[in-house]
Design goal:
mainly alpha, three-stranded antiparallel beta sheet, 3 strands, elongated
């Protein structure tokens, strides 16, 4: 009994042995077939698999190839193609079904890519969507604690300090992916760098991955009023610059 090869890959390999021809349905079949061809030393079939994979990698399936590479190895020569697609078209890659089905290791690999060109808030939203999808203990009802635990390995790779205060509140704060004290520390540093000691796992990087500077948020109040952390009770509040006796209204 063969246990180290995927049934579809081994079946396609056998058909090739008898017919000397092969027609792949999708890139995953080619990957599984390549493993069989490599094991039984059929270099011509390996090349046919490589050709199909090389020409067939797209933003829609690159995460499938990345998953396979990290799990099985032996396809390092595709790393350049994988990285190139992820770097040049991160949006379509992260929106793909293949990304949503990808392994945690693949998500981490993408996050560690230093040449990723994407707005940080968009990247964080995609990673959070992945965490929700992989945290469902019952249909459509993942618990907050489960999502928080699923997100934890990714937090050191995310540049929270590159977010605007509004983005951080709308995203990570509302999702409750960090503890209350961690959230306050990060938010305080977004507003006033160095004002609070950051948790050790938080990245100190403050630039967006797309290389664009942060745009100032549009004012929603008069110029004398600002939205920031209350220095007295440590809640997210509205301040009046002129009086500053305390906060005017808490709007968490």
């Amino acid at each position: 009994r063969i246990t180290d090869l995927h049934p579809e890959g081994f079946s396609t390999f056998l058909k090739y042995i008898y017919s000397r021809g092969v027609n792949f349905v999708n890139i995953l079949q080619a990957l599984h077939t390549r493993a069989a061809a490599q094991k039984y030393m059929e270099p011509k079939l390996v090349k046919k698999c490589d050709d199909f994979i090389n020409y067939g990698i797209t933003t829609a399936n690159v995460c499938i190839v990345l998953d396979y590479s990290l799990k099985h190895g032996n396809i390092d020569h595709f790393n350049g193609k994988i990285d190139g697609l992820v770097e040049s078209s991160p949006g379509p890659v992260l929106k793909s079904q293949a990304f949503m089905a990808a392994s945690r290791e693949s998500v981490l690999q993408i996050l560690k890519n230093p040449r990723l060109k994407i707005k940080e808030y968009d990247l964080i939203k995609h990673v959070y969507a992945w965490a929700v999808a992989h945290s469902k203990q019952e249909p459509d009802k993942p618990t907050i604690d489960t999502v928080k635990q699923t997100m934890r390995p990714f937090l050191p790779e995310l540049h929270f300090l590159a977010l605007t205060p509004q983005e951080f509140v709308d995203g990570p704060v509302s999702w409750k992916i960090m503890t209350h004290s961690e959230t306050l520390a990060v938010l305080s540093n977004i507003i006033n760098p160095g004002s609070e000691e950051l948790p050790e796992f938080i990245s100190k990087i403050t630039r967006n991955r797309n290389g664009k500077p942060l745009k100032p948020e549009k004012a929603t109040m008069t110029d004398t009023k600002v939205q920031t952390l209350c220095r007295h009770c440590h809640t997210w509040a509205t301040y009046d610059r002129n009086t500053d006796p305390g906060h005017i209204k808490v709007w968490v």
